[in-house]
Amino acid sequence: AEDDNDEIHRRIKRITDHLKLEGHGAALQGIEDRLRIFSTIGVDTLLTRRESSGEVTRTGITERILKMAEQLTDLRLIVFDPASRFRGGEENSNEDATRFVEALETLAKQTGATVMIAHHTNKTSYIPDYEPGQGASRGASALTDGLRWQMNLGRLSAEQLKSIGVPKEHGGRYVAATVTKTNYSSI
């Protein structure tokens, strides 16, 4: 929801070119028939919205997504990026975050697909050598509480860089992916 169609195409091209260079060309066969990406720049895409009563409720966007999903065969994954563009209400309200999680759960249950959101981290996550946990997610803790799995992306610490033999000045070339919550497996 933050990039227009031109930028989306540039990114997909770079990713597929890189994967082909790494020898994964066969896995990309038919990707154009399996991948659907929708830019929503300038479009209201809120799955939940605060009503005049103050209550946060699900919007008709959820049903529109379900109607689109019915037309797809073998749907396995739905991604919302970033979450802030799809959720209404107060970001720090646990009740509002729970209504958003319920909208995501409805999509997962009715489509059978995994629903994944990309979400921004809080300001603490930018502190050098900070090791983010479940609390690294920006806003209400009910968002993390309601989800079944969380992975945090961040910079490698000086100690991590040293352990893999990378000089500190090259640290920006690497990303640490840390699973900080998983309800259905061990970490």
Question: Explain this structure to me?
Answer:
The protein is of the alpha+beta class. Helix content is 33%, strand content 14%. It is built from six helices and six strands; from the N terminus they run ααββαβαβαβαβ. β3, α4 (94-111) and β4 form a beta-alpha-beta unit. α3 runs parallel beside α4 (94-111). The longest helix is centred in the middle third of the chain and has 18 residues, at 94-111. The protein starts with a helix and ends in a 5-residue tail after the last strand.
Spans of at least 5 consecutive residues with low confidence: none
The CA-CA distance between the termini, in Å, is 30 Å
Q: What average pLDDT do the residues reach?
A: 91
Helix content: 25-40%
Total of DSSP H or I helical runs spanning 4+ residues: 6
Order of strands, widest sheet: 1-2
Largest sheet: 2 strands, antiparallel
What is the helix/strand order? HHEEHEHEHEHE
Total count of strands: 6
Sheet-strand content, in percent, reads 5-15%
Structural class: alpha+beta
Overall geometry comes to globular
Radius of gyration: 19 Å
